[in-house]
Specification:
Length: 530
C-alpha cells in the first residue's frame, strides 16, 4: 500500500510538471488581452489545456498500473469541487477572506509557503477522498495523487518568490540559483501576468469586483460589477489588493456630481483604501510587494486599486488594515485645519460634524493644542463627541446654534471654526466665529453648497474664511503636506493617534453605507470590505 501511495504522489507531481511546461509554452503564444475577457477563444483555449492535463494524467496513472478509472474520476470530481468552492468564496465575504489568505502568494518564501499551500492541498485531498469513495474506492491513492500535484505548485511558487527578489552579492555567493545581476521585480511581475498559467499569476486575477457609480443619483446610482478589468500600475505606481476601503463624504459628493472636477459616470467609486501591494510599476523602489499601505485616490471601492507609490503610507506595525483607515484622509485634513486655523492654547475651537472621523480627529488635536473645544453633532452622537475630548457639545440641528456658541463664549464667538457640514449650517458657522480675528476653515460641504456674498463678509460676517481640499494641498503645497505627514507619524509614534474603530459593511452594501452617511446616521469611520 505504501508503494502505491508513493507512486500516486509521484505521478501527481510529474503530471503537473508536464502540464506546466506545456501551458507556459502555449500561453506565451497567446496575446494577453485574449485572456483578460470572457471570449469564446479563451474558453476553448482553457478547455484544450484541461484536456492536455487530463490526457497526461490518464496515461501516467494507467501506465503505472493504478486504479486508473477510479483515481481519475475522483480527481475530476475534486477539481469540480475546487472550482465550485472558489466561486462560492467570491460571493461569501468570510470565505473570500479565507481564500485570499491561503492564495495570496506574493512574496512567499520557503517558511511562509509551507504554511499556505497545505491548506489548499488539504481541501483538495479531502474532496478527492470523498469523491473516490463515491466512485467505489481508490481513496488513498487518489488523495496522494492530488497532493502531489499541489506540492509541485508549492515548490514552483516558492522558487518564483526566491528568484524574483533582488539579491546582494553576499546572497549570490550563498545561493545556487542566483542570477548574475538582480532581477527587475516589476518586469518579472509583468512577465508572469502576461505569460504564466492562472495559478502562477501571483494571485492577481484579470477581473475584479467593483462598486461603480452609474449615474449622479448618489447612493442609488451605485451598482456592483463583477467583471471589471484589474488595473495595471504605470510608472511610479503600485497595485494594491484592497483589504478595506474608507467611506467618506467625498464619495457622496462624487456620487451627486458636486465634487470639483467630478468624473462622469460610469466610474469606480471610492477614494480611500488600505491593502497589500501586489505589483509595482517601473521606477518604484518602495513600498515593495507584500507591504501593507494606505492610500487616497479614485477607484477605491474595488478589490484592486492603483495608487502613486509616493502617496502610499505604510500601515503602523501591529495595526490591521481596517484600523489604519483615516490615516491618509481624516487625520491629514484635521491636522491641516489646525495649521490653517492657527489654533493656539487658550483659544476656543468649534468643530462641526464632530462625531465623524474627521470631526473626532479635529476635537482630539484641538484639545492637544490646549484649546477649549465645542463640538456640534446630533443628540444621539453627543456621547461619542465627549469621548473624543470635547468640553461642551451642542445640538447641530438646533436653530440657535450660533447663539448657543456666543453664549458659551461670553458673546465673543469661537476663535476657530472647523466647518464641514455645509448647507444651512454654514451660515451658523460664520455667525459663530469671532468678528475680524475669527477663522473658519472649510473642509467640506456634506450638507450641500452654501453661498456667502462680499457684502456679507464686509458687514454681516467680517471674519476670515479658509477653504481646504486635500488633493489641492498635495499638489499646490507639497512642503506643507510633507510637514503634516511628518507630524502625523510623530503622533502615531507617541500614541496620540491610535487605531481607528471602524463600522464595516460588505462591498455589495456600499449603497447602504453611503446612504446612512449622507443621512447623518453614523458615528466614526465607515469601511467597505471587498
Amino acid at each position: 500500500m505504501t508503494t502505491e501511495l508513493v507512486r500516486s504522489f509521484a505521478i501527481g507531481w510529474i503530471t503537473l510538471v508536464c502540464w506546466s511546461v506545456i501551458a507556459f509554452s502555449l500561453l506565451e503564444r497567446v496575446r494577453p488581452r485574449d485572456r483578460h475577457r470572457p471570449s469564446t477563444r479563451r474558453v476553448l483555449f482553457a478547455a484544450c489545456l484541461l484536456a492536455i492535463d487530463a490526457a497526461i494524467a490518464t496515461a501516467l496513472v494507467r501506465g503505472f498500473g493504478l486504479h486508473g478509472d477510479r483515481v481519475l474520476a475522483a480527481w475530476l470530481v475534486a477539481e469540480l469541487f475546487h472550482y465550485a468552492l472558489h466561486r462560492a468564496m467570491h460571493r461569501v465575504p468570510v470565505l473570500w477572506r479565507i481564500h485570499r489568505f491561503h492564495h495570496d502568494d506574493v512574496g512567499l518564501d520557503w517558511t511562509t509557503a509551507w504554511r499556505v499551500h497545505p491548506i489548499d492541498a488539504a481541501l483538495t485531498a479531502t474532496a478527492t477522498v470523498l469523491a473516490a469513495a463515491l466512485v467505489g474506492g481508490g481513496a488513498a491513492p487518489a488523495a496522494w495523487f492530488v497532493v502531489g500535484r499541489r506540492v509541485w505548485t508549492l515548490v514552483l511558487h516558492a522558487n518564483i518568490a526566491r528568484i524574483s527578489r533582488p539579491r546582494t552579492s553576499r546572497a549570490r555567493s550563498r545561493s545556487s540559483i542566483a542570477c548574475s545581476k538582480p532581477i527587475d521585480v516589476a518586469r518579472f511581475d509583468r512577465f508572469l501576468s502576461e505569460t504564466a498559467p492562472v495559478y502562477l499569476r501571483m494571485s492577481i486575477p484579470s477581473t475584479m469586483r467593483s462598486l461603480q457609480q452609474t449615474s449622479l443619483e448618489g447612493p442609488r446610482g451605485l451598482a456592483l460589477v463583477t467583471d471589471t478589468p484589474v488595473p495595471r500600475p504605470g510608472r511610479g505606481e503600485i497595485l494594491i489588493r484592497v483589504v478595506a476601503a474608507g467611506v467618506n463624504f467625498v464619495d457622496v459628493a462624487r456620487g451627486r456630481g458636486s465634487f470639483g472636477d467630478n468624473p462622469q459616470p460610469p466610474f469606480i467609486a471610492g477614494f480611500e483604501a488600505v491593502g497589500e501591494v501586489v505589483a509595482t510599476g517601473e521606477a518604484v523602489a518602495q513600498p515593495g510587494r507584500g507591504a501593507l499601505v494606505a492610500c487616497a485616490g479614485p477607484g477605491a471601492f474595488a478589490e484592486y486599486v492603483v495608487s502613486r507609490a509616493a502617496a502610499a503610507m505604510p500601515v503602523p506595525p501591529g495595526w490591521t488594515a481596517e484600523q489604519a483607515l483615516g490615516l491618509v484622509v481624516n487625520w491629514p485634513a484635521a491636522l491641516a485645519a489646525m495649521k490653517l486655523g492657527r489654533v493656539a492654547a487658550g483659544e476656543t475651537v468649534l468643530v462641526l460634524a464632530a462625531a465623524g472621523a474627521t470631526g473626532q480627529a479635529a476635537v482630539k488635536l484641538a484639545k492637544r493644542a490646549g484649546a477649549r473645544v465645542i463640538g456640534a453633532a446630533s443628540l444621539a452622537k453627543h456621547e461619542a463627541v465627549r469621548a473624543a475630548g470635547a468640553d461642551q457639545v451642542l445640538d447641530s440641528r438646533a436653530l440657535d446654534l450660533a447663539s448657543a456658541v456666543l453664549e458659551l463664549t461670553g458673546g465673543r464667538g469661537a476663535d476657530v471654526v472647523v466647518e464641514s457640514a455645509g448647507g444651512a449650517t454654514f451660515a451658523a458657522s460664520l455667525a459663530a466665529a469671532k468678528r475680524i480675528t475669527g477663522r473658519v476653515v472649510v473642509l467640506g460641504l456634506a450638507g450641500g453648497d452654501a453661498v456667502v456674498s462680499n457684502w456679507e463678509l464686509v458687514y454681516r460676517h467680517p471674519i476670515q474664511i479658509l477653504g481646504f481640499n486635500l488633493g489641492t494641498l498635495i499638489q499646490a503645497a507639497p512642503q506643507l503636506f510633507g510637514e503634516i505627514v511628518g507630524e502625523l507619524h510623530g503622533l502615531i509614534a507617541a500614541g496620540i493617534v491610535g487605531p481607528a474603530r471602524v463600522t464595516t459593511y460588505a462591498l455589495a452594501d456600499g449603497a447602504r453605507a453611503l446612504t446612512e452617511l449622507e443621512d447623518r446616521a453614523t458615528v466614526g469611520k465607515l469601511a467597505l470590505l471587498p
